[in-house]
Design brief:
The complex is a heterodimer of chains A (694) and B (251). Chain A has 694 residues and is α/β, with parallel strands linked by helices. In chain A, strands 1-2-3-10-9-13 form a six-stranded mixed beta sheet. Chain A has a three-stranded parallel beta sheet with strand order 6-7-8. In chain A, β9, α26 and β10 form a beta-alpha-beta unit. In chain A, α3 packs parallel to α6 and α5 crosses α6. Chain B has one domain: Alpha-Beta Barrel (TIM Barrel). With 251 residues, chain B is of the alpha/beta class. Classes of the chains: A alpha/beta (694), B alpha/beta (251).
Chain lengths: 694, 251
């Protein structure tokens, strides 16, 4: 990486540009109230006013501009009115539509002016439908606002003699991009405005697909070389890190700015191109946490590409995350997705598979607490003198109840209008329908959290109570109630001698599979949602691996007490699909084999097998190749998703003691990467307690 | 059936041979090298290890069938990734019958024997015969020094090295570099003299000293008493090997 880029990266990383930020959010409420605006018009007003209030910032060396200066997104309703408007309904997380993916190709190939023409044509056609007219007018208000913002940047650039920037902004985002540079600039500005409008987890989709035509023609025309294109790309990636501290998330870094590479085209051919490799290289050389890279692979993926991806893993950003097309595409098809759409899937903020431009899916409406379902079943079952089958029946019933509750809560889901985001989706302007009214796909996702601990608890009960009868049910019951105080021997037996997920041991793996089958059945039984979609079961755990152990304000699920796998009250669970913390595991092959048993044709919402490899693994090209083979093995075994992390335990421990020396230490948390020293202590502890394969 | 004592089965052992491998660590070793980085591999007995992570038992008894069944679960994967099974230790030669029974029960897979060569010639021949590749450790050529630092004579070892070559098996000679002990120019030159002209030798690998080993001793209830300066800079001089046209790498 050249010096200019290094300097630019460091400036962004250390927040030099924070100095240009405005003091507080602007007031939009007054205008909304004075003009008595409807909800869609308020949102459009918000987008317009935010764009108008942005100050034009052009830094000396940059070629891709836009620096956000507004710190926040102001309210468009008073608290009381908002409560009235949303009363009795469910808002997803913060409210605004989040965690979907725009059809960025639409923007780059049409330009905003063409989108505006489409809007006008629909306006003419549907002139007697007030709702459609209102939506179209709102959408046009936002388009015009973005165009004016771009024009202000262009004229300032011209004023300052930055002709190249001015030329680029004269063309985009108004018109279709003509060059790679224009495409990057158009994307940067239009994506930033999505964030500015209050949406979050704004993904970048299949970047190597929609960007490739621009890059490819520039390379052919000799406008760019691979090297100069990589410099532009690096600059674009740096720009994605500028405002990320302003994005909402559970922890700093949890911003869902993800990007998907590779896989196959809608026609079924390999989608890997030079830009795929370029993104992997630039991301490796930059070592910044945004964008978060996902790589779609299959059992046939070539090892050279996986070598390059492993080099990115090696530097310790916690990505790329791998998704297996062989498993995911057929699963999506069998869940009602058209084949071409399924082949076009991208990974959402963390793990879930969504279709850019065509999905208004809420991929994470919540998580089933497997530990709670199992723990309750064990305690009640032991009390009622159930046999093991009886306990399993209770587990299934508990899971079903939890799914039902989550599904019911979301049958009152209220999605606020999103006129600007709608401009970037397939068919909204064409049909005069806001994105919030739904797109082609409208499913919900539910994850099954902390499965390994739950399966281990069941296996321990089966082994020690029912098979070898070495522990009596009353002793286990008392030990659990006492949080194992006075029962340390029992706890050690449960923790050390019970069969554990991750060792390819069918005794316990069968129970893991059963938990997910119960989840799939519960989702199927729930049937259609009020938005016409269904519930997609998944294998992620998000923050629940901490929250279920420690509790969290507003959490619906109960805190789980001591569990029959020998886990003490308050101890965290393992993240996503990974062996329980602190248990003996033979290694990564057995772990992959354990998790390969899950029926991913039913469990299709994503959620990765999560593995930490010690950084000593990545010593030389030979071991890089072996790691690439491990990734290929993951795909060959028919697993769904893999998150491979490179970490050094000593470094983590030192960072706890001397955070000032480790400001740039990055770790993968659950579905995203963040700076270790910016995480809350409980998240740091959990990462330290994970399994490290050397 | 002879049962065996194994102190670890480690998957994805990337430093133990070609491709993706699983390494079986056999418990018990006739040597007691002062720098041994697997002290729990020395005793043949199952023992308690007290580490900061808690107390655990080191060593598990397996019948050949049990171990082979476990390993066969992943043989397909190892084979598909240009790898296989490595038998290491401790010293596999101490459990020759067990190891051979396990190998005979394994599905077709590449076998690597990682040995100190310190064992009976007959055992050595039988194990080498069933292996596809041998990693042969050479520490010190000087007899006295060898006895002092490893607790045993190197006569058998050097004889077995020539047996290995004569059997026509491909092998790698691995030299742990211990500062001031095995990394001296004299010892390296002696090693060159010893291995020069051996037709089965693929290459010599020099393994730099690992300072992390010391802490493992107290966990195993043993004493770590290095008679050398652990922090002394290693002599990584490979000239003698290169002059003799012996391929050498530092791992």
């Amino acid at each position: 990486m050249n010096e200019l880029l290094t300097a630019m990266k460091n400036r962004v990383r250390y927040g030099a540009h924070h100095a240009v930020r405005q003091d507080g959010p602007i007031d939009i409420l007054t205008e909304c109230e004075t003009r008595q605006l409807s909800w869609p018009r308020r949102v459009a007003c918000l987008v317009r006013r935010q764009c108008e209030a942005e100050r034009v910032i052009i830094k000396p060396d940059e070629r891709i501009v836009f620096t956000r200066t507004l710190p926040g997104v102001p309210p468009i309703y008073s608290t009381e009115k908002w409560a009235q408007l949303t009363g009795g309904q469910t808002l997803h997380e913060l409210g605004p539509i989040s965690n979907i993916c725009a059809d960025w190709n639409l923007l780059l190939s049409q330009g905003l002016l063409r989108r505006r023409q489409v809007a006008l044509a629909t306006h003419e056609r549907l002139v007697d439908e007030p709702k459609a007219v209102e939506f179209i007018n709102s959408a046009i208000e936002t388009i015009d606002a973005v165009l004016r913002l771009a024009a202000r940047y262009a004229s300032k650039a011209r004023e300052e003699g930055r002709e190249k920037i001015a030329d680029v902004l004269d063309n985009v985002p108004a018109h279709p991009a003509q060059t790679f540079h224009e495409a990057l600039q158009s994307l940067r500005l239009c994506q930033a405005v999505v964030w500015l409008s209050g949406h979050y987890h704004v993904g970048l989709g299949r970047f190597d697909q929609y960007m490739w035509p621009f890059l490819s023609s520039d390379l052919q025309a000799g406008l760019l070389t691979v090297e100069t294109a990589e410099e532009l790309l690096a600059e674009f990636f740096i720009s994605l890190n500028k405002d990320s501290d302003l994005y909402p998330g559970v922890q700093q870094g949890d911003n869902g700015q993800s990007l998907t590479l590779g896989g196959i085209t809608p026609a079924g051919d390999s989608a890997v191109n030079e830009l795929t490799r370029m993104v992997l290289r630039v991301s490796r050389d930059l070592a910044l946490i945004d964008p978060k890279i996902n790589l779609r692979i299959s059992a046939q993926t070539d090892l050279d590409l996986l070598d390059l991806a492993t080099e990115l893993t090696r530097i310790g950003l916690g990505f790329p995350q791998y998704s297996n097309d062989d498993v995911i595409i057929p699963a999506l098809v069998s869940h009602g997705y058209d084949l071409e759409d399924a082949r076009d899937y991208v990974v959402a903020a963390c793990w879930e598979f969504i279709i850019p431009g065509r999905g208004m899916e809420v991929v994470n409406i919540g998580a089933v607490s497997f530990p709670a379902a199992v723990d309750q079943a064990i305690r009640e079952g032991l009390n009622a003198q159930d046999d093991f089958e009886g306990i399993l029946d209770r587990v299934a019933k508990n899971i079903d109840e939890q799914v039902h509750q989550l599904g019911e809560a979301y049958s009152h889901l209220l999605l606020p209008p999103a006129p600007y985001y709608s401009v970037l989706m397939d068919g909204c302007l064409e049909q005069g329908k806001d994105l919030s009214e739904g797109l082609k796909y409208n499913n919900f996702g539910i994850h099954g959290a902390c499965a390994a601990n739950a399966a281990d608890a069941l296996a321990a009960v089966k082994q020690f109570i029912f098979v070898d009868r070495s522990i009596s049910s009353s002793v286990l019951f008392s030990a659990l109630k006492a949080n194992f105080v006075g029962y340390e021997k029992i706890r050690r037996k449960l923790a050390d001698e019970g069969p554990k997920v991750g060792n390819n041991d069918s005794f316990v793996d069968t129970l893991l599979v059963e938990l997910f089958n119960d989840l799939a059945e519960a989702c199927e039984r729930f049937g259609r949602t009020h938005r016409g979609g269904f519930l997609r079961p998944g294998t992620g755990s998000a923050m629940f691996y901490i929250w279920l152990a420690t509790g969290h304000v507003g959490m619906r699920e109960p805190v789980v007490e001591a569990t029959a796998d020998g886990r003490l009250r308050g101890e965290p669970f393992s993240a996503n699909l990974s062996p329980s913390l602190g248990v003996r595991i033979r290694g990564p092959i057995s772990t992959l084999q354990s998790f390969a048993k899950i029926d991913y044709q039913r469990i299709c919402n994503g959620g990765p097998i999560t593995m930490e490899l010690s950084d000593s693994v990545f010593r030389n090209p030979e071991s890089i190749r072996k790691t690439a083979m491990l990734v290929r093995t993951f795909a060959q075994l028919g697993c769904q998703q893999l998150q491979l992390n490179s970490l050094n335990l000593e470094t983590l421990l030192d960072a706890r003691k001397h955070p000032e020396n480790h400001k740039n230490l990055i770790v993968r948390v659950w579905g995203w990467s963040g700076y270790f020293c910016e995480l809350a202590p409980e998240y740091q502890e959990q990462i330290i307690a994970r399994h490290y394969f050397e | 059936m002879t049962s065996g004592i194994v102190f670890d089965v480690k998957e994805f052992a990337i430093h133990d041979g070609p491709g993706i491998r699983t390494t079986v660590f056999l418990k018990g070793c006739p040597m007691s090298c002062m720098w041994c980085h697997n002290p729990e591999g020395q005793s043949r007995q199952i023992q308690v290890i007290w580490s900061p992570a808690g107390e655990r038992l080191s060593g598990k008894e397996y019948t050949p069938n049990e171990l082979a069944t476990l390993l066969n679960q992943q043989v397909d994967i190892l084979r598909a990734n240009e790898g296989g099974i490595t038998f290491s230790g401790g010293e596999p030669l101490l459990q020759t019958d067990f190891v051979i029974e396990v190998i005979e029960l394994l599905d077709d897979v590449h076998i690597l024997l990682d040995t100190s060569g310190c064992g009976q010639e007959q055992d050595f021949r039988r194990l080498v015969h069933r292996s596809d590749l041998v990693y042969f450790d050479l520490k010190l050529i000087d007899k006295e020094a060898h006895r002092h630092y490893t607790g045993c004579d190197n006569g058998l070892i050097l004889e077995n090295l020539y047996v290995l070559n004569e059997m026509g098996k491909p092998f790698v000679v691995r030299v742990p570099l211990v500062p001031g002990v095995t990394d001296t120019n004299q010892n390296l030159a002696d090693i060159v003299q010893t291995v020069r002209g051996l037709s089965g030798l693929l290459q010599v690998e020099l393994l730099p000293y690992n300072k992390a080993a010391g802490s493992k001793y107290q966990y195993a209830g043993m004493l770590f008493k290095p008679e050398y300066n652990e922090s002394h800079e290693l002599n990584l001089n490979t000239v003698a090997f290169e002059q003799a046209n012996i391929k050498v790498i530092i791992v």
